[in-house]
Structures are given as structure tokens and as C-alpha cells.
Specification:
Shape: globular
Largest sheet: 8 strands, antiparallel
Keywords: Signal
Helix content: 10-25%
Oligomer: single chain
Protein name: S41 family peptidase
Radius of gyration: 27 Å
Structural class: alpha+beta
InterPro entries: ClpP/crotonase-like_dom_sf, Tail-specific_protease
Pfam family, one: Peptidase_S41
Number of strands: 24
Number of helices: 10
Distance between the termini: 82 Å
Strand content: 25-35%
Length: about 475
């Protein structure tokens, strides 16, 4: 009876691919565990087949905490081949019941390619279908757009924290696209976004645009508003990621408005005198697009450099960019201008050629300090500290130093977002930050991956001992 109910429901919802999912209703068991489903045994949880509480049929899968586990998690999953070809929409669902839970319950799915590399991921939280704790049986779903790159789902559920939860009647269903025509407004927005990428992305030649057009046409059916187009926009962004673009992103209208008037990251630069003769300056990421706010940030950094240099006999400088995750590069570069020196600091390079970024007379990229400072000794050594959190504009700021004879970099490889993101304001108020160029240092060396430090330093195990700083100090005082 249970299987007949499932089949009827799937015929209404779409094309069933249930045969790919083994033991979807948790009926078949071995050693009191559902066959086909894997879980990693834990001393904090009990995973078992339960024939007393179930949505329908003979049994369900139960996860229960047997010790206090507020921060622990128990998962279960199954690898499912994805049948079919071309672009398609697939719904994964399951029924969930819980009691006495304190924590999180979710369905989750990874999408793997042929190399078993994860190319997409979603769970109940990220897809805004949050599982409500301590309620009776309810169906929850996840949806994915997949193409021929997708080979397998890893589909399962989890309990994070304490309590007891049951899962039953899982299904995997291909949902047909609509045949209804889309509105002109929706199609115009999709074309606007697609054409920006097609014209400006440094990865545009790696995309099969004929296939892209076909898939967008199929996916866009029945879309009326700009909000309805989100799946097509996400598909374009996912395609970019799959061909190597790990940097482009979309900024919301709300974030754009905040950045136009303030610095949402709100982390201040820091400075101090070390070993009596070394000037230390930490420059964090900076996200504001405002010239006034950006220039004020640059003024603070130059003020720190001025104070250290005029009040002390500086033998060298440490520029700490390890917490600089990016944003707007020009306030950072303008602030550090006394240390980078004037002139061309680096280049953006694309198929159209290359364009320089520079610092001169207290200005860079529209950011300006009113009374630019010049070092007493511009030839003193400068150690630049980088690491895995040095990303995007933090990396561009790093490149602004590389190539100077008195500079050496220390630490660990950077994040690897060494492309220049160009800002495109979309008609709905959002910003597309699109990787449209690669970056070069002042010597013309191009960077397409992580920046490797001149001196690789093993990270400190103790917070009190900073190995990067120690290496930098040793080099400066040689």
C-alpha cells in the first residue's frame, strides 16, 4: 500500500527516478539498521530502525542522543546516481518527526561530478525550508538544478545537538519545467545578466554559450518577475565556478546601499612600535565604496605611518595583511602609499590589454589624503605578512609591494582570488562583481593563483608567539 501511495504522488509531482534510491522508506533492515544508508557510529548517538514510530509502512530511521551532545552531530546518507541528461530540476524530499530536540535537524545534499568533487551543496537551512523541531510528521524538500556535469547526489539527514528525530519515505523526483511563456521583464533581466558575463568575464571563452542559451530558455519558462529569475542567475554563476571562476559574486541592493555610505566591515587599522625600531601596521579589509569614507580610512593609515616614522628611528616596517579579506583596494593602497612608493604599483590584464593601478601625491583610485606623508628613509626594509585569509583586494594590496627591492613577503600562501572584479550595477539595484581581469605586479608578472610568500613560515601553535612576525623582525634586523 505504501509503495502505491508513493508512486501516485510522484506521478503528480513529476518524473520519478525513485529506482535510483535504495530502500527509500527504510523498510529493509539488517542488524536493526536500514540497508543502503550509511552513518558513522558515534558514542553520543544511537541510529536504528524503529518499527514503533513511522510515517507509514513498517518502520522509520531514528536518531537519538544518548549522551549530552549540544555541539555534536550525527548524519546518515546514501550515494545516488543522477539519471537523465541535459539541464533538469530535481527534488529530494523526506518526512521528518522529532521530540525533545535542542539543536538542528536538516536534510542535506551534495552534488558530485564524475571525479567525485562536490560542485553544489544545499540543506534545509540554505534552501530556506528550515525543519521545525518537536513537531509531528511533515515533508521537507530540497531542489537542485543539475546538468551533465552532475553525476551523483549524496543525500541524507542529520541531527545536531540533543533529542530524538525520525526520518521516513525519502524520494528523488525530476520536476518538469513549465511550458508557459515568460514575461518580457524576466527575459530582459536574464539577457542583461548573461550579456555582461558573455562580454566581460575572463572565463567567457570556456563557456559553451550555445548550450547556455538553450538551458536558459528551458529554465526561464513561466518566470514573471525579476525575483523569479534567481534560478537562471544562479545557474550562470555556477557555470562560471565550474570553469574556474572562484571570485565573482553578486552583492545585494541592501549591501550596495550600505557600502555607498559606510564601511560595513568596520574593522580599524592598527599600528605599534616593535623592538624600538620597527614600525608595525595592520591593514584589514575595507568594503565601503564611498570616497569620503575610503579617504578617511586612508588618512588613518597614513597618520599611523607618519607618527611611527617621525617619532622614532625606524629600521624597517611590517605590513600585516593576514586579516585582509578584501573589498575596496584603493583606500588600502592610498593609506599605505608612503610604503609602496609612488608610480605604477600593478596592472589589471585581460584580452583587451592591461591597465595600471598607481599611487601618486596621496591619491589612488579616487581616494585622497589631504597631506600625503613621505618616509624619512624610503629604502628601509618592508616585510609584508600574508596568509590564507589574505584575499581579493588584500592580494592586490600585496602585489602593490611585490617587485620593490626592499620588500619581502612572509607567511603562508594567500587565498587565491587574484583576479580583478569589475562592478556592474544591475537594473534591480544589485551589483555583479565579475572577474574581468587577472592581476600583475609592477614588474609585469601575472598571478592567476595564490601568492606564494618569499619566506614560507610554519604557523605558530601558540597565540603568544607569532612566527610570521618573528621571521620578519629577524630579516629586518640583519
Amino acid at each position: 500500500m505504501k509503495k502505491m501511495i508513493i508512486s501516485a504522488a510522484l506521478l503528480v509531482a513529476g518524473i520519478t527516478i525513485q529506482a535510483q534510491l535504495q530502500n527509500p522508506d527504510f523498510e529493509e533492515t539488517e542488524n536493526n539498521l536500514p540497508i543502503g544508508w550509511k552513518n558513522k557510529p558515534s558514542e553520543l548517538y544511537l541510529v536504528k530502525s524503529d518499527d514503533a514510530v513511522k510515517y507509514s509502512g513498517k518502520s522509520a530511521l531514528q536518531i537519538s542522543s544518548i549522551s549530552n551532545a549540544p555541539k555534536a552531530m550525527q548524519t546518515f546518507s546514501q550515494i545516488i546516481p543522477i539519471p537523465g541528461s541535459g539541464i533538469r530540476k530535481v527534488r529530494l524530499s523526506g518526512y521528518i518527526r522529532s521530540e525533545n530536540t535542542e539543536g538542528k535537524i536538516a536534510l542535506w545534499t551534495q552534488v558530485w561530478n564524475a571525479e567525485k568533487t562536490m560542485i553544489d551543496f544545499g540543506n534545509s537551512d540554505t534552501q530556506n525550508n528550515i525543519v521545525v523541531s518537536n513537531t509531528d510528521w511533515k515533508e521537507y524538500t530540497l531542489e537542485f538544478l543539475v546538468d551533465d556535469m552532475a553525476r551523483n547526489f549524496v543525500f541524507g539527514g542529520l541531527l545536531q545537538g540533543n533529542g530524538k528525530v525520525w526520518f521516513d519515505q525519502f524520494s528523488v523526483t525530476e520536476v518538469p519545467f513549465s511550458d508557459k511563456a515568460s514575461s518580457k521583464k524576466a527575459l530582459a533581466y536574464i539577457d542583461e545578466f548573461k550579456n555582461i558575463v558573455k562580454k566581460n568575464s575572463i572565463f567567457k571563452d570556456k563557456i559553451n554559450w550555445t548550450l547556455m542559451e538553450q538551458n536558459l530558455h528551458k529554465m526561464s519558462k513561466d518566470m514573471e518577475t525579476v525575483e523569479d529569475t534567481d534560478p537562471t542567475i544562479l545557474y550562470i554563476m555556477k557555470t562560471l565556478r565550474n570553469v574556474g571562476d572562484n571570485h565573482s559574486f553578486i552583492d545585494s541592493k541592501e549591501n550596495v546601499e550600505k557600502k555607498n555610505v559606510s564601511n560595513p566591515t568596520a574593522i580599524e587599522p592598527e599600528s605599534k612600535l616593535m623592538d624600538q625600531h620597527i614600525g608595525y601596521v595592520m591593514v584589514p579589509g575595507f568594503s565601503s565604496l564611498s570616497k569620503e569614507v575610503g579617504s578617511s580610512f586612508a588618512e588613518k593609515i597614513q597618520g599611523m605611518i607618519r607618527k611611527l616614522d617621525t617619532e622614532n628611528q625606524i629600521k624597517g616596517w611590517i605590513v600585516d595583511l593576514r586579516r585582509n579579506m578584501g573589498g575596496n583596494m584603493y583606500p588600502m593602497i592610498t593609506g599605505l602609499g608612503p610604503l609602496t612608493g609612488e608610480g605604477t604599483l600593478g596592472y589589471f590584464a585581460s584580452g583587451k590589454g592591461k591597465s595600471a593601478w598607481s599611487y601618486k601625491k596621496g591619491s589612488s583610485g579616487g581616494m585622497t589624503v589631504s597631506n600625503p606623508y613621505y618616509l624619512k628613509n624610503p629604502d628601509t626594509k618592508i616585510a609584508v605578512l600574508i596568509g590564507p585569509y589574505t584575499g581579493s583586494s588584500g592580494e592586490a594590496t600585496t602585489l602593490s609591494f611585490i617587485g620593490k627591492k626592499n620588500v619581502r613577503t612572509f607567511g603562508q600562501p594567500s587565498a587565491g582570488y587574484t583576479s580583478g572584479n569589475q562592478s556592474f550595477r544591475l537594473s534591480d539595484g544589485r551589483n555583479l562583481l565579475l572577474a574581468s581581469s587577472y592581476e600583475m605586479d609592477r614588474t609585469g608578472k601575472e598571478y592567476r593563483e595564490k601568492i606564494q610568500p618569499d619566506v614560507s613560515v610554519v604557523p605558530s601553535e601558540s597565540k603568544e608567539n607569532d612566527a610570521d612576525v618573528a621571521e620578519a623582525v629577524q630579516w629586518i634586523l640583519k
